[in-house]
Amino acid sequence: MRTDTIAAIATALSDSGIGIIRVSGDEAIPIVNKIYRNKKNKEVLFMYDSHTIHYGFIVEKDGSPIDEVMVSVMRAPHSYTMEDTVEINCHGGALMMKKILMTAIEAGARLAEPGEFTKRAFLNGRIDLSRAEAVMDVIHAKNQFALKSSMKQLRGSVFEKIKELREKILYEIAFIESALDDPEHISLEGYTEKLSDQVSFVIKELKKLLNSADDGKMLKEGICTVIVGKPNVGKSSLLNLMVGQDRAIVTDIAGTTRDTLEETIYLGDITLNIIDTAGIRNTEDMVEKIGVEKAKTISEDADLILYVMDSSVPLDENDADIMRMIKDKKTILLLNKSDLDEVVDLTAVNELFSNVSEKSSRVYMMSENLDEEELQDGNDTIVMVKISAKENDGMDKLVHLIKKMFFHGQISYNDEICITSSRHKEALLEALESMNQVCGSLENQMPEDFYSIDLMSAYASLGKIIGEEVGDDLVNEIFLKFCMGK
Ligand code: GDP
Asked: Would you say the CB of residue 232 lies under 6 angstroms from ligand 1?
């Protein structure tokens, strides 16, 4: 198959030491050959061996030099795209990179679409779709976990697992189909028991992958966290402490955080996508009212609520309102200003809670040996942690608690595959549903062709993950999310 030749700037479009312009396609070498001269001013690029790098110049049509460069030549099929590829290393100024890109385009290349190099690697069969998606995940990785898991996926962990499950399913489809075609030679006698074992195995494996998906997504993309609490309790101070800079406006006038602020915070292995909301209280101020409403809406979609209270001021009706608002959410209660005299304690909190929700007896004080079982039984438990945002006290306890609540105490970097893509999760769910149908047919002793229909759909659903059963539209949609030059 012949392809046109594409070119793009592969490095960030900002001033840096080196910039790379990547050219790939059938005409990559002749096109760059037209604009490259070696130090003896000779047009020699086409003579270079694959995987060699050369000093020289990119030149204008009249031969005048544009920049001093190093060009590397990678001949098909041994390149990222499996096509002839030339990479031009030039000075990393945005203007210079654009100038060289334009020169390559004038010489016959076409500007690449986002992700088009990786799309070619996929279409030319060098990588499957799960590995192609991992390329972007590696680039966007925001924490150690995301980086490790996307590197694992790039090396083919998801591909291998899906391939293994598909092979098992395909074997059974083939067996059933052959037996139905040739009943004289292939008997289905006693087959259902064997099939039942295989189906149980695949279902167990699918469930394991699906179980990893929620943790995986949260680890990769961050826990959507909302800070709520009345004005002046120390929400902005807490956010600033976590971010490590004076991002939010901190004042001692109640109601200064008028709108919401968003930050991504990296606490070791955990990423929190944190939203600081306007202090929640009954207010007549229009601007503030909008903030309060927004806080309420955002809280509904949050994975975690950090409810900040001022331990030096008695609780009131506004706290009761907040408690009502968050009563079904995973919540950590932060009793702030522990450096001041305490007027709010666990009893006071539980008392107020008992008036607004059935969770009255379920607020616990965080202690070192907090029972893990209590934390894992859903959203019913609220744990209270004493902190002082001012004195930076209690933050380690908070991190420890979040890890316990979301990742059962530890973030595992073991060899288990972790599903981090919602597209993969959807396909796994489809496959699981089809396999459950096979289970049902087996239990009801349905005829064998029933099994193979559902086995086929499970096979097809899993194929979507690695890109074997996907249409052009989906492929285009996936690669359009890529950055330029990748
Ligand atoms: P927000 O309205 O809830 O965002 O509260 P701010 O973060 O603006 O804090 C309100 C006031 O409380 C400021 O004067 C802070 O310096 C003060 N403050 C915040 N945290 C603490 C704390 O832990 N101890 C003490 N003593 N003061 C605090």
From this structure: yes
Q: Which two tokens stand for residue 176?
A: 């059933």
Sequence-ordered list of residues with C-beta below 8 angstroms from that of 329, at least 6 positions apart, any chain: 299, 302, 304, 305, 379
Give the pLDDT band of residue 144 (cuts 50, 70, 90).
Answer: confident
What is the pTM (predicted TM-score) of this model? 0.68
Instruction: Give me the residues paired with residue 388 across strands.
Output: 393
Instruction: Give me the helices (H) in 24-65, please.
Output: 28-35
Residue nearest to atom 11 of ligand 1 (CA): 252
Q: Which mutation among 241, 250, 274, 307 tests ligand 1's pocket best, with the greatest number of atoms within 8 A of CB? A: 250
Region of 363 (left: φ > 0; alpha: ψ -120 to 50; beta: rest) is beta
How many CB atoms sit inside 10 A of residue 436's CB? 15
- At 377-415, the pLDDT tens digits run 454 668 889 999 999 998 888 888 887 787 765 555 556
- For residue 182, the model assigns a pLDDT of 85
349 Cβ neighbours under 8 A, 6+ residues apart: 309, 315, 333, 335, 363, 384
Between CA 420 and CA 250 the distance in angstroms is 37
Task: Give the residue ranges of DSSP H helices in 366-480.
Answer: 372-376, 395-407, 422-443, 448-466, 472-480
Nearest to 207 by CA among 474, 401, 431, 456: 431
Return the axis-axis angle of helices 129-140 and 157-181, rounded to nearest 10°: 160
Could you read off the pLDDT of 223-258 as tens digits, one per residue? 888 888 888 899 888 888 887 754 554 555 555 554
Task: Tell whether ligand 1 has an atom less than 6 A from the beta carbon of residue 250.
Answer: yes
Nearest CA, atom 25, ligand 1: 337
CA dihedral 15, 18, 23, 29 (to 10 degrees): 140
Q: Is the CB of 236 under 6 A from ligand 1?
A: yes
Helices and strands (H and E) in the chain: how many: 16, 14
The CA 61 to ligand 1 mean position distance, Å, reads 65
